[in-house]
């Protein structure tokens, strides 16, 4: 049944390009963000001006123990990277707790994990946790820009087989992935993927490898979508865990994270004062709810547009006027899209905005704002800051476009480590679950993390807040018909 | 398959008494609430001191057209009741819109609806809407206290066969229900129930009637639970619609309604100033979230207890300290339970509370606070106001217990008509859907209202807020893979 | 210089009638409020149906010790009143602390205080505190409706010379005041007034009494205004303390108190749901700020009107659209006036409001809404509840007018004891200050309470919140140029 | 009386160094901030790598019209600077409106203004406004780091005599000031100062100049304090206007500005997630109120410390627990000082903080946190980002110290142009008022801007918010005893 996966898969991929999904693109954006904030945050940092231009693929590198099974930018940066990892450890107590609790039993003993994710200090904490739990790991980057070279160096120095550097070519990208899986005498039995490229590569090049693989853990919307399509087509040959849709991750990535990042992204790019500003937020899902709450709290006057009457009614009850975009487009100071839709803000709207109006996107991809429509001869583009363009109309009206319509929160602010911690913990637990599940629990299908493990991820993050959970008494558990240790809610609970 | 439903059903009922469900009791509470607020709101109102003490069952009554197929308290009160109905109509625009939109096609033509609900002005608007859509209706009260006699009179005067009055005996209660269904030459083909008593009665006494019945619409948790049990036992012989769990109703009944009623209930009973008060809220579900948000906004310092780590993490992110009850019980000014659990506040907690602490319940039933434990000889109870007791310890410490631990928002505040409007509209649509569904769409099972109709209910309530919904373009709908008219979200979306 | 005070004073009074001040009218409103809420809160309460109709002035009354120097409704109600006082004591910890701290030194020993205020449980706590500090007191009511008869009975039973009952005639009113001051062998040396009527009476009838009077403490805006006019005219013959304008009282009476009472007042009268409602608040002073903050927090959409550009800019920065009333009058669901101005809402506005619009006043008096303009033949008034009128236009449009345009928070909600506690404590301290001030500290002028005493009042209320104040170190005090014990801010600080 | 001003003045200055005032230091901080954010915001900006190292004082420079009466970095940068000024103009509508309204009458015709302020695009808009109103201007920088060289170039190109560049030595600083005043054939008649250095220089070097000077407008706390001391000592020889204490400026600089900048400053430096964090804010004045409100809205749990019982009571009513710092120091994640005091956070507190605790100052100067106490051998300082130090204890505990205890909002975020606009408009009006005041209106004293002009500044900023002010009717103005055009509040109103 794996006879011609590559053809079928290629089609899917093409389809995807037509509708780039939120988190898929997010991956890309995040890397851009991190590189850009690096340059801000660490003037005194680790860029090494004497870095030669030689491709890492052409270098001979060995770590201090003589091991050379990796390919990175510069092993000398390992010390700096180690410090970054140590700082990240402090903010990822859940993974550290997991190390402690599960270290004795080594639940991943025998696991051979091949991974393809962003390579950052947070990922390093995850990898070293997997290792502490017994796994062997080989790793590539899921994005050509996002690798923190110093962290990659620290991992290589620590004995991990890492193949990644910042600024890979596309050819480098696939070469690195191949080096992870195409090894003599080592065959992976678990896949941890972010975007589906690693899975895609194995399907295409080494389909037989799936015979030994116990499961796939996938984090991105894009990758998850591919897996569902494979499953639907009957081509999925191992169980897969959809980490993206776990409730904990969703709530934190969207509602709570956006509540803070909308403010941060707008301030860093425009220094705008929020008080008294009129803002229209397109879309009142979790992201829109977060944006609206934050701006209202800062003294902005917020309007909402919606297509779904239920979300619309929620917006009303939360104190926002529900309008059509056209009704307010002339008067607002800021336009924010969070719909997941395309062409929500089009040229006609942009033409009618007032001078100085700020336009940005918190939704997904760069489809929400029709940026292409602004690339016409009569309009002048002026780059005034990193991520900030002024589009100037013939009558001198200026529109302030942020991040060229890409995701604001990922382009112009940072993702809190706390959110990354939740994701990484969920990934680790998903690997443990799939690796240890008794035969038959999981079929060749895509699964959500069991509710109980979702709750476990949450519980591991409570000590950060010095939060004390109440336990059910036996009598209460019986009364409610619940197990004292959970799960406490049905799977669909949000 | 209907051979012995009554025995099985009786067992279920008994089981229910052990765990009285939230909305089941709510029905009761609402009626108490309404009667109590009546006495407040309408000193100049319609109580007729010359009312004789004769039982309505013993009276001969006819309306002005000579029709006598009803049994109510006093047909002379019809005018007053009509005005109440007219006022309610103004606040239930969705039902009025439904009348207008659907009146031409009479989607309930031929429907014979037997109903058993609270008989209030809002219900009257529902009944007259059903009638306008083509249905014939016979109606009894689902609660012995909640009937507004004047409204019942107006309905009887309007030609409805209503059997209900305030202060029925239990025997009256079943007699009224029987009068609704046991009619010569008329057999119901739809059931609208609130609590399951009507359904129960038909199962028990007239099981053959189900042959002509197209479906049951049930609003209460209790009744829904019974239906699920029947279904599980294979004894449900018609399709049933669970109106209680529709997303619109849930959000409004819990989050938004409680956000307002917690303040209202506390003020009306205790005149407490919220600013600076320390409050512990037990449970951070929708009800708890509403209570916490309102109190925080009024300047209270709020602590939360939770058993579910996911809700606990939400509480943390929303800015509430997560504690165990014992940690703060000595210092708080107000204790509010919203867990749905039992014995959340027990005597030990009550013993440790400080002087003047207010204790109340927003969750369900009277199980959350162990009120029984306060009925001991060394404690003195003092009724200081309606719904307010001081419990006095030997050392003179006073605890202020509200509504004897029953639901505060229903005992001591009013349910906004807007919430009732959403419920009534949902009921009407559920009846239309079940009555008109093509053969085979619904089996002998319990269903949620289709998402699309849920969205329709919401959309009917938007004009109240002068809210303008955005419509998808064809291109956008295609991009999102959605129908332009919805549904816009998956069924499980909350 | 006191030769003809009555003429001059009468003129002032007339002038006053033209511009009735906020707190002056408030006094009246509060009493109405309390009587109305009494009837709500205590169905099981102390109304004695066997009360005879004899005027108290015609009764012979003696307390249990044989003392008859008082005139009240019914001495038998003393026990009930005592309990009310005890409950009030629990909520007025500052006065109780004052009793304890100052009792040893009796700072009011020798003081003969004549008072004219509302006679409520809270006033009783004040009077008994003054007594504990050494003062002798004689007391009349400042309002013909506001006296709690039971409390007056308890005071009489406790030995106070009280002359007051609920429902006095105007003649009774002045008779009671006269009985307080016109006593053989007793002459007051301190005045505690609320509204200026007592002061007025002494000026008019017993001007020579001022020779022994050390000072006046006045709480109402009306009374304070009169005092300033006397002072301006050179007719004020003793020092007077303006208690009304102390910062603590102002902030609590206006901002914090209104933040809660606007919600309470609207709910109790109309059961309106706040979420999604459009509201216009006229005036953005302290009262307006409180109303806006509360309604915004409950999910209303709030518009503000202002005449002062500074307050207007604050409204903008706080997130409210600043409009003229005409711009939004057709669309709003609720209109609230808090301007202190007259004819803010006039017939023209009322004509344009939409059906069901609620109109109420939180500002002062009944001048803000031109209620008189609604008394025209084509409009029908319908009293639907206590304090709630529907005004019906010929086209059936209804406007919901609350409290006939009088102060909503005082007519339809209760004043929290905490606020009354702050006022009463301030009054007590003002009496102590004036009584003990060395010769020359205060001249024949109107004074604000010294900042330090204002801070002391605040500090006495902190324990209620378990609040812990930080103390300056000597070094810090020196650095800031402050005394370690205050005052910490300049007098004008708000 | 001006015989030896320099000696006396020097003493004052010394005194000042002991207690550096908030805004005085602020000036310095702002410039640092702007230079640092420049480097962030404008990678593609105007740094000219070919800039020579020659001192501007040694260069011969002429603008395109041949005028050479200025001394700046590089006249070639004028075009870039002009664009910066144009962008600033868009955000300073009040000044632009002032230009339009007052241009006809030239209220500053004949005015010769010598100024010493930060030289930024916003200042340029002010200067060009003064010029449009008829004034001649000569200008120096009040801070050696804050000059935007490109803006200075644009001003020089436009004909202004500007003497300023970024990176002046102290000697340059005074040389520039001297060049402004020491001109043949030109003598200033108005002073616009920020910090008092210009005023000081004239007192010291050219005391006779004051004979022609009509007044001083001073913006900083430091400068204002000096003026009050001069006045007190009888040495102030012209009227001076204290712009710093105008209510509009105060409210915006403190409450509204800090509400936004606390979030911005923390995010930019630490990327901390606010949700669920425990924060202690020391001081609940305007700044503290702004910080607390913002953090509470973002989901932090906020504790407050206070010394003033009135502010303490406000904190309670606003929903914050009032504690002593010691009570919570072990548990908080963030410590923020806003007291204006010294040694609020001392080594003992720092020793007890938990690992990762963030410490920063929003109050004034660097006195609030005893940073010096951290310069001990056992502690390691690690600079992790610009403005961010980790202080590491021997047991590896890290404290995150921001801006070395200097003002966070000025070091690590930007001052919104809107706030600068209010200040600049106030300065312009103060100049107009002093210059045009009839003889005798102002004496040799320090004045606040008349309330009415304060209101005028506010009104000029309302159009930004599309805010519509209501006007009093004649009848209402009479009723309130107010002029229809204001002032609407007493001078002390805040």
TrEMBL record, chains A, B, C, D:
Residue stretches of biased makeup (Polar residues): 1-11
GO aspect biological process, one term: S-adenosylmethionine cycle
One GO term describing the cellular component: cytosol
Composition-biased stretches (Low complexity): 29-48
Binding site residues for substrate: 120, 194, 219, 249, 253
Ranges where the S-adenosyl-L-homocysteine hydrolase NAD binding domain occurs: 254-415
Chain spans, region Disordered: 1-70
Residue intervals passing through the bilayer: none
Binding residue positions for NAD(+): 285-290, 306, 409
UniProt KW NAD keyword: yes
UniProt cross-references to PROSITE patterns, sorted A to Z: ADOHCYASE_1 (PS00738), ADOHCYASE_2 (PS00739)
Cofactor: NAD(+)
UniProt cross-references to SMART domains, sorted A to Z: AdoHcyase, AdoHcyase_NAD
Keyword S-adenosyl-L-methionine: no
CDD domains listed in its UniProt record: SAHH (cd00401)
Basic residues composition bias: residue spans: 19-28
UniProt cross-references to Pfam families, sorted A to Z: AdoHcyase (PF05221), AdoHcyase_NAD (PF00670)
Cofactor note: Binds 1 NAD(+) per subunit.
Keywords carried by this UniProt record: NAD, One-carbon metabolism
PANTHER family assigned: ADENOSYLHOMOCYSTEINASE, ADENOSYLHOMOCYSTEINASE 3
Family, per entry: Belongs to the adenosylhomocysteinase family.
The protein's name: S-adenosyl-L-homocysteine hydrolase NAD binding domain-containing protein
Classification lineage: Eukaryota, Metazoa, Chordata, Craniata, Vertebrata
């Amino acid at each position: 049944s794996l006879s011609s996966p590559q053809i079928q898969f290629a089609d899917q991929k093409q389809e995807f390009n037509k509708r780039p999904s939120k988190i898929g693109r997010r991956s890309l954006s995040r890397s851009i963000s991190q590189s850009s904030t690096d340059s801000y945050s660490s003037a005194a940092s680790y860029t090494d001006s004497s870095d030669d231009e030689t491709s890492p693929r052409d270098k001979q590198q060995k770590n201090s123990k003589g091991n050379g099974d990796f390919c990175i930018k510069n092993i000398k940066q390992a010390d700096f990277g180690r410090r970054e990892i140590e700082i990240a450890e402090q903010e990822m107590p859940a993974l550290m707790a997991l190390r402690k609790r599960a270290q004795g039993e080594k639940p991943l003993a025998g696991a051979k994990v091949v991974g393809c994710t962003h390579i950052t200090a947070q990922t390093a904490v995850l990898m070293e946790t997997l290792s502490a739990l017994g796994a062997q790991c080989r790793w590539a980057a899921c994005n050509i820009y996002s690798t923190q070279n110093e962290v990659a160096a620290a991992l290589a120095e620590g004995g991990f087989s890492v193949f990644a550097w910042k600024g890979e070519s596309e050819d480098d990208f696939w070469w690195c992935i191949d080096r992870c899986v195409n090894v003599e005498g080592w065959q992976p039995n678990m896949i941890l993927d972010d975007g589906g490229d690693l899975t895609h590569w194995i399907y295409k090049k080494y389909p037989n490898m799936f015979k030994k693989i116990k499961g796939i853990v996938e984090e991105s919307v894009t990758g998850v979508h591919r897996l569902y399509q494979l499953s639907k087509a009957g081509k999925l040959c191992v169980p897969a865990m959809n980490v993206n849709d776990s409730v904990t991750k969703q709530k934190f990535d969207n509602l709570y994270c956006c509540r803070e990042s909308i403010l941060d992204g707008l301030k860093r790019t425009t220094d705008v004062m929020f008080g008294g500003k009129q803002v229209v937020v397109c879309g009142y899902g979790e992201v829109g709810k977060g944006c609206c709450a934050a701006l209202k709290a800062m003294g902005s006057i917020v309007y909402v547009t919606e297509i779904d009457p239920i979300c619309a009614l929620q917006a009303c009850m939360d104190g926002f006027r529900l309008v059509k975009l056209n009704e307010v487009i002339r008067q607002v100071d800021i336009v924010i899209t969070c719909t997941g839709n395309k062409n929500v803000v089009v040229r006609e709207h942009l033409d009618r905005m007032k001078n100085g109006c700020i336009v940005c996107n918190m939704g997904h991809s760069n489809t929400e704002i029709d940026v292409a429509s602004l690339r016409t001869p009569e309009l002048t583009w002026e780059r005034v800051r990193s991520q900030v363009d002024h589009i100037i109309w013939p009558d001198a009206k200026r529109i302030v476009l942020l991040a060229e319509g890409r995701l604001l929160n990922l382009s112009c602010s940072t993702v809190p480590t706390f959110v990354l911690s939740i994701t990484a913990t969920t990934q680790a637990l998903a690997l443990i679950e799939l690796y240890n599940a008794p035969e038959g629990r999981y079929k060749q299908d895509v699964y959500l993390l069991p509710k109980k493990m979702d709750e476990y991820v949450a519980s591991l993050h409570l000590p950060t807040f010095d939060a004390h959970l109440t336990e059910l008494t036996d009598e209460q558990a019986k009364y409610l018909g619940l197990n004292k240790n959970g799960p406490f809610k049905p799977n669909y609970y949000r």
